[in-house]
Amino acid sequence: MRERDILGCGAEATVYRTKYLGREAVVKTRTPKSYRHSELDMRLRSSRTKNEARIMIEARKLGVRTPVIYDIDVNACNITMEFVTGRKVKDVLDEEPSGAKELCGKIGKIIAELHNGRISHGDLTTSNMILMPDGEICLLDMSLGTTLAEIEDLGVDVHLLQRAFTSAHSGLDDCITDIMSSYAEHMKDAGNVLRRVDDIRNRGRYT
Ligand SMILES: Nc1ncnc2c1ncn2[C@@H]1O[C@H](COP(=O)(O)OP(=O)(O)O)[C@@H](O)[C@H]1O
Ligand SMILES: [Mg+2]
Prior knowledge:
The chain is of the alpha+beta class. Helices cover 46% and strands 18% of the residues.
């Protein structure tokens, strides 16, 4: 792996560019953590790898764009997937705030579509979203997601989005309102989810 091919090197995983059968691809690999017991570490890394692939596939069935999976290796704990061209939504919002309103409408809608299918994402930040050249958003990094999500899971998802968004984009105060009104418009059970988000926020205040 060459340095310039590395797209991300987070706490859990390294993401790098490669080719797969001649196509532009990326590999997301979960590297061993020496501070964890080795058996537990292996189990954790392989279950997160499987979960991430499963959620990506389930989201795709709902019509939510996620990278196409080319290969999964549960022993090496890596997923080879389509390289999604476009720009990180975080960078687009930072560099072109004038287009933020339209983009936030799309963010709210894609989360609504995911939640209508009872899938929670687990890490809804603008660094985990790519704006593709066709104007659609592709969601990445779904290893903490769940299927058959309850109102509580969806509420936590929205709560974390709001927190992450306001800290990453402190200058774009109206944007989270635009995201939430688009979400409310498109998500069937939005009333219940948003009431739960209020509960979660209040719980946080008193604990
Ligand atoms: N399929 C992909 N196509 C293009 N870029 C990707 C893809 N997957 C990940 N990336 C890039 O790598 C970064 C890290 O990947 P991510 O899955 O979010 O891992 P992490 O858990 O380290 O945040 C992303 O923010 C994105 O910029
Ligand atoms: Mg990420």
